[in-house]
Amino acid sequence: MQMANLLSVVILLPLVGAGLALMAPSDRAVRWFALLVTTLTFVLSVPLWTEFDLSRAADLQFVSGGFALIADSLDVRYLVGIDGFSLLLVLLTTLLGPIVVLSSWRYITRRTKGYYALLLVLQTGMTGVFCAFDVLLFYVFFELTLIPMYFLIGIWGGEQRIYAAVKFVIYTMVGSLLMLVAIIYLGIEAGAALNNGVFTTDYFKLLEFDMAVSMQTWLFVLFAFAFAIKVPIFPFHTWLPDAHVQAPTGGSVILAGVLLKMGTYGLVRFCLPFFPNASIAHAELFAILAVIGIIYGALVSRAQPDAKKLVAYSSVSHLGFVVLGIFAFTLESLQGAMIQMVNHGISTGALFLLVGMLYERRHTRLMSDYGGIARSVPLLTFFMVLTALASAGLPGLNGFVGEFMILVGAFSSEVLDSPLLVALATTGVILAAVYLLWMLSRMFFGPLTEQANVKMKDLSVRELLVLIPMGLLMIILGLMPQPFLKVSEPAAERLLETIERKKAVAEGQSLPEHLLDEFRRDSPSGAGERSVEGAEIP
Q1: Which of 198, 252, 365, 450 has the most CB atoms within 10 Å of its CB?
Q2: What CA–CA distance (Å, rounded) separates 367 from 349?
Q3: pTM to 2 decimals?
Q4: What is the pLDDT of residues 335-391, one digit of tens each?
């Protein structure tokens, strides 16, 4: 199978599996079938890593499609590929697929066919988001994730599941519809300027479109508003704790592990290269909101009696670091932001898995109902301590790498030029240690009093299969991050060069000499040559 076709199989196989899952003869059969499909999808995605050309990590690889998505009269196409920004996020998505299925094995006991079918549809939407290089196709995948997540929360969630599901949809839909307006306008204007008047949402043609600063500003606002809600950035975060707390364990893992990254990925993929002047002009605002989110999320986490809600608010804090790294506009901060997206997906996803495992045993998420259970469940305690320390940013574990690079890059940022802001962000690392160690102390250590805690069962083989890959990745990414950082470095360098060039063009300045070659290669006659593996995009 050609690598280009393999990528489309990785994207669409779960969608096909979702239809077949509905025809499964029993609940047991649908569980095994969903596990088979998600595991096969992950196995098929591994060659994307092994065959990825690091020397061309900034270019689009494994390109599939190119055919018209709507009509030949519109330049809207099915065009998917992978570069240094999307590779790790695609692998994270496919890895979490079988993990979420296994975590739901005993938790989901009703309407199982619908549950696993929705999980598979959701995986197609998430993978497609990170691979789409037509902006309208990106929007389709972006919206596709909304439908299954709504039902996962609304049907299999907690007591207030309907409220949480509706709130999630309203927040996301408002931002998405505004982004759709911006996509249509951008497609019309770019088509008139570059595509013989034909409406286009081709990513590379839109990248060539050098628009006026005034147009950049309001288009940036519409795009960034949609992504800010998805991250979510303070003060658009209020839907997240409700969605996390009410969602089933599998839904919370997917939401924290992948769905939130669609917002930060969108900022990097679209806002920064399409609207560089507007992005730089609003960088300080986004950095301030990010730092507020870092501190606010940490403080509110410390005040929670509910373990799941504590982990939910911690996402607001941790993703604040990612947003800060994106808008610092340095190579270190961008690389830190990209690797931190993966790190957060692993460590916070594992925290939700562990809280879910405790809930299955005691049917309570209140930390006060636990205490001293390290004696009863030593294996579970080991993984919880490991995951909490990784989330807190302990050196040697994955959380440290991303946060350190973000803070170093932000401190040297000429765009932000605010050491005080970075110093305030640094307090988020200390506060993370406070609320995570406080949670460990209350739930796992101290006197073992309640009889239900004494009789609690330790991890099963199935649960170990879920947690061991996550634990290994926390250690590997913490001790050996360089192979993963090499993937994003060329793409981050290319992005910064694109921002500098387009910023100079929009301001009417002469291009620096070292960017003249980049400009020529970015021109319509050379874009396909540098963006696709040796062949121009059809």
Answers
A1: 252
A2: 19
A3: 0.90
A4: 999 999 999 999 999 999 999 999 988 888 899 889 889 989 999 999 999 999 999
